[in-house]
Amino acid sequence: MNPKLPYVLLVGAAVIIFILSCVLLSRGRRSPSCESQASAVDKTGFMSQSLVFADLTPEEMSQVVRYLQGNLGVPLVDASRAKPSENCIASVDLQVPAKAEVLRFLDGGGARPPREALAVLYFGNQAEPNISEYVVGPLPTPVYHRDVTVQKYGGKVPYHRRRMLGSEYQQLGVFLEMVAFAAAPTFLQEVFEYDRTNVAFQTTVPLGFQSGDRSTWFVLFQNVSGFFLHPVGLEVLVDHSSLDMSQWTVSRVFYNGQYYRDMVQLESAYVQGRISVEKVRKASWDGDFSSMKPRAPSAALFPLQYEPQGPRYSVRNNHVLFQAWSFAFGMSVSTGLRLFDIRHKGERVAYEISVQEALSVYGSNCPGGMSTRYMDGSFGLGRYTSPLVRGVDCPYSATYVDTHSASESLRPKKRKASLCIFEQNLGSPLRRHYSNLQSLYYGGLVNSALVIRSIATVGNYDYVWDFIFYQNGAIEGKVQATGYPSSSFLHGDGLRYGNRLWEHTLGTIHTLFFNYKVDLDVGGVKNSLVAHDMAFEMTRAPWRPEQQIERPRLTKKVLDTEDQAAFRLQSKMPRYIYFAANSKNKWGHQRGYRIQITSFAGDHIPETSSMERAISWARYQLAVTQRKEEEPTSTSIYNQNDPWTPTVAFADFINNETITNEDLVAWITAGFLHIPHSEDIPNTVTVGNSVGFLLRPYNYYDLDPSIYSHDGVFFTNEQDFTACEINPIACLPKTASCLPNFPPFTYDGFQNM
C-alpha cells in the first residue's frame, strides 16, 4: 500500500467536512433584515399646504373648550355627566374653510385661511332649550366665536333633535333598573333570573312617530359576548321627552308577541298566569354560538405582505404621497374618513371625497326591530372609529395613524392606530398581454395600489371604509360591512321578516345604504356632465347590400340640469357618465373622469313615508348638483331624532339648476340588501358585502399613465429574461431575500373605555 494514501484520505475527508460545515452554516444563517429606502421627499410644498385640511390637534380642542367655558356666559357641564336640563359641549371638530378661500391659498398664492373649529352645544338650561353651533377661531389661540346655527339651518335647532349622549343612555339605564324593572320583580326573577347584571340593551331610532317625540324602545338581550344574537323576548318603550328625569315613564311593554300598558300590567298578568312564557336557555358568558373565539387551533401562518425596500409612499402629518398620487386626509366626528386636494401627476382631480352617511332600515314583527332606521352619522362614524389590529384589520407593516376627537367630554380622546395606510399587491396584473402571434413577447404590470382605511364600529355593525389609489389614475371608494347581525325574538309570523338563526333568534331583514360626496375638479373647477352609452343600429353590409348587420354605436348626451342628473335608485343610468373638463386631450376628446358605481341596493323606503325626506339622498344612485357652501353635506346629525321635520333634506338640493360649466358635486349612493342567514353566525363576513364606486380617467390622458410605472415588466423571446436589467422580476430572489422588520404587536383598543 502506498504510504502516502492515508494522508491523502485524511486531507480529502477534512476538505469534505469543511465544505459540508459551510453549507450547513449558510443554511442556518438568518437572512438579512430588509433595509428601508429613504421615503419619498415632498418637493412640491403641498405637505405644509395640506395642513389647511388637518384635523384639530388635542391642544386646539382643549383651547376651544377653555374659550367657550370662559366666553359664553353660561355654565357648561361635562357632557359625560350632563343631565338633559343642563348645558354642555357635545362636540368640537374642524371647521373646513370655504373652497374658494382654500383654492386661493393653494393655487393663487393667497393668504392661508384662518384655522377655525366648529363646536356643537346643547343648551338644556335655557328658557327655550336648543342646539347651537359656533365657529371658534382663530386657532391655536381663539379670540372670537360666532353663532352660525341660523345661517346654516334657517333658524334655531329644536332641542329634541339632539342626538343621545352617553350620559342620557346611562340615565335611562338607571331608570330601567330602579323604576321600570322594580315594578315587575317576580316576572324578571322567575323568567330571566334577573340580577341587574345579566341583561344588555339595544336601543332603536328614530324616537317616535312625530316631531317632538323622544321615546326609545329598549330591546333586552342576555348580557354575554355577542349579545346581539341573544334576544329574550322583552322590549320596553320609555318616554324620556321631559328634561326632568323624574317625569320619565314606561309607555308600553312587549313580551313574546303581546303588548302591555307598562311593567305593572306585565307583572300582574304573569302572577295571574295569563302570560305565555318562553324560557330562553341561559347562555354561557362567552355567548356559546355567538362567540368569536376560533373553533380550531392555530396552524401554519397565513401569508404576509412586506416591503423588501421599505414603504414606497410617505405620510407627513395629514399628507400622503404615493407614486403620482398625493392627497390630504382627515376624520370628521360625524361622517368619518374624508380626503381633500387629491392630485394625480401634480394635477388636482378631486377637491373632496368623503363619506356622508350609513343608513339601515329594518323589518321585524317585534316593535324594536320594525321601528329601527339607523342613521349612523348621527352616532358618529368618526366618533366610533375603532383601533385597528395589526395583521388582521390592515397588513402588519402598514402605517398606523392615531386620531383624536373632542366629543361628549371636555377632554380630547385619543384613538391609537385608528387609521392605516399601506400599499397592497392585489395579486393580479393591472394589465398584461402575452403575444404568441406575429411577435413573441410578454408585457405586464403588477396591480399594486395604495389604500387608506378606517373601520367604524357602530353598535352591532363594523364598516370597513377604504379609499384606494391605482397606478392608472383610478380611485376607488369602497365599504365592506361585517360585525354581528341585529336580531329579534322569534315568535309568531317572524319568518316573514328574516331567517331563523338559533333557537329564539330571528335575523331581521334590512337594507344598508352608504352615501358619498365626490367633488371632482377635472382639469379645473368648472365641469359639465356627459353621458355616453350604446344603441344598436341596423345597416346594410356595404359589400353585400342584401345582408343586414346589427352594430352597436356610441350615443352621447350632455346633461344640462340637476333634474336630468338625478338618477333614481333602481332606474337605468348611462353606463358611461363622466365629469368633462373644458380642455381636450391629444386626440380631441374632452378630458374626463368617469363615475362607475358598484351596488346591489334593496328598495328605498316609500316616499309617502313621513320620515323619507330626512333620508331622501337614498332615492338616488347618483345625483349631480351645483357645488354650494351652504350644501356641505347630504344630511344632518339632527335628522335621526326628528326625521319628520328634517334639518337637512337632500331632495331640496335638486332644483333644476344648470350644471353646464359649473363647479359640480356628485352624490353617490351604494348599498345592499341583507337577509341574515345561518352563515352570519357568529359574524357577518365582508365577502359579498362590499359596495362602492370607481372614479376612472376617461380620455383624461393621451394614454394609460401606468405605462410610466417603474413596476412594468416586458421581455421578448429573443431577450435573456433571467437577466435583472431585462426583467426586474428575475431579481426577486436577490432583492427580496430579506426578513421584514415587523414591530412588536401592540393593541390599545381596551384602554380608556
TrEMBL record:
Is this entry keyworded Hydrolase? no
Q: Which GO terms describe its molecular function?
A: copper ion binding; primary methylamine oxidase activity; quinone binding
UniProt keywords, alphabetically: Copper, Membrane, Metal-binding, Oxidoreductase, TPQ, Transmembrane, Transmembrane helix
Which Gene3D superfamilies does its entry note? 3.10.450.40, Copper amine oxidase, catalytic domain
Q: Look up the domain of life of the source.
A: Eukaryota
Cofactors, names only: Cu cation
A GO BP term, please? amine metabolic process
Q: Which GO terms describe its cellular component?
A: plasma membrane
Query: Pfam families recorded for this chain?
Result: Cu_amine_oxid (PF01179), Cu_amine_oxidN2 (PF02727), Cu_amine_oxidN3 (PF02728)
Domain named Copper amine oxidase N2-terminal: which ranges?
A: 76-144
Give the residue spans that cross the bilayer: 6-25
The UniProt note on the cofactor reads as follows: Contains 1 topaquinone per subunit.
Q: Which residues form the active site?
A: D376 (proton acceptor), Y461 (schiff-base intermediate with substrate)
**Stored InterPro entries:** Cu_Am_Ox_Cu-bd (IPR049947), Cu_Am_ox_TPQ-bd (IPR049948), Cu_amine_oxidase (IPR000269), Cu_amine_oxidase_C (IPR015798), Cu_amine_oxidase_C_sf (IPR036460), Cu_amine_oxidase_N-reg (IPR016182), Cu_amine_oxidase_N2 (IPR015800), Cu_amine_oxidase_N3 (IPR015802)
The protein's name is Amine oxidase
Classification lineage: Eukaryota, Metazoa, Chordata, Craniata, Vertebrata
Name of the encoding gene: Aoc3_0
